[in-house]
Structure to design on (244 residues):
């Protein structure tokens, strides 16, 4: 089974991986499941021989990698960004899916790049990195020993996507993350003008909430514009009532 049309939209992002050997193992895990797009978010310089030794015939994924120093830049052109983490806590999103549910969710979205983001070996993804993504995927594990190493986690999620993705995406043009950011700014500015926020933290949390919801919804440009209009029109109505 080779759902190449839908698999080709999947990008694996590794944030600040500590050991090049683990990157090599990830390359091998990806390629066995038909995934070929690797992005690194880091300022580290890796020993390429350690990468090659573990990657074997999947070393071309590393050679063709993209690199960024900021996660937001790495996912700017994605229609969906997914944080792979098992840790919970304030600011780490209350809603999460397992790998099989993730595959079904992606299958129902329109065309566009989907980024699955993994953290470093020692600490995983930071709270800020999780908040930057639009949803969370968690691999079910035993409570007795829940920890997976990086390449194992990538292998399990890659396998689930390989098995579960429909052959073709639904034909619609979903806007990328950077367009959602613009729309959320419009919405937040309108709410701010109406005096909605008590403080900066509430403004920030509301922005993160709207971003996550809009990205998970897979909105088209027309739908995004309608969403912006709801907020800007509400602001104008509120201002008009104040002037009366």
């Amino acid at each position: 089974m080779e759902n190449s049309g839908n698999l080709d939209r999947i990008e694996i992002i590794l944030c600040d991986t500590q050991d090049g050997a683990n990157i090599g193992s990830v390359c091998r895990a990806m390629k066995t499941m038909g995934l070929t797009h690797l992005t690194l978010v880091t300022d580290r310089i890796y020993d390429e021989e350690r990468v090659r030794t573990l990657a074997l015939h999947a070393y071309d994924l590393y050679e063709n990698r993209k690199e960024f120093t900021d996660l937001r830049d790495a996912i700017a052109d994605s229609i969906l960004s997914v944080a792979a983490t098992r840790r919970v806590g304030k600011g780490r999103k209350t809603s999460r899916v397992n790998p099989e549910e993730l595959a079904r969710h992606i299958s129902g979205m329109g065309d566009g790049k989907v980024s699955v983001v993994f953290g470093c070996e020692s600490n995983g993804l930071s709270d800020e990195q999780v908040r930057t993504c639009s949803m969370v995927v968690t691999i079910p594990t035993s409570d007795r020993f829940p920890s997976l190493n990086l390449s194992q986690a990538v292998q399990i999620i890659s396998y689930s996507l390989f098995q579960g993705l429909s052959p073709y995406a639904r034909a619609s043009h979903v806007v990328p993350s950077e367009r959602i950011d613009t729309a959320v700014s419009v919405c937040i500015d309108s709410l701010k003008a109406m005096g909605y926020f008590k403080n900066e933290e509430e403004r920030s949390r509301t922005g993160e909430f709207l971003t996550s919801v809009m990205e998970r919804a897979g909105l088209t440009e027309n739908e995004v514009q309608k969403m912006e209009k709801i907020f800007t029109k509400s602001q104008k109505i509120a201002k008009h009532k104040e002037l009366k």
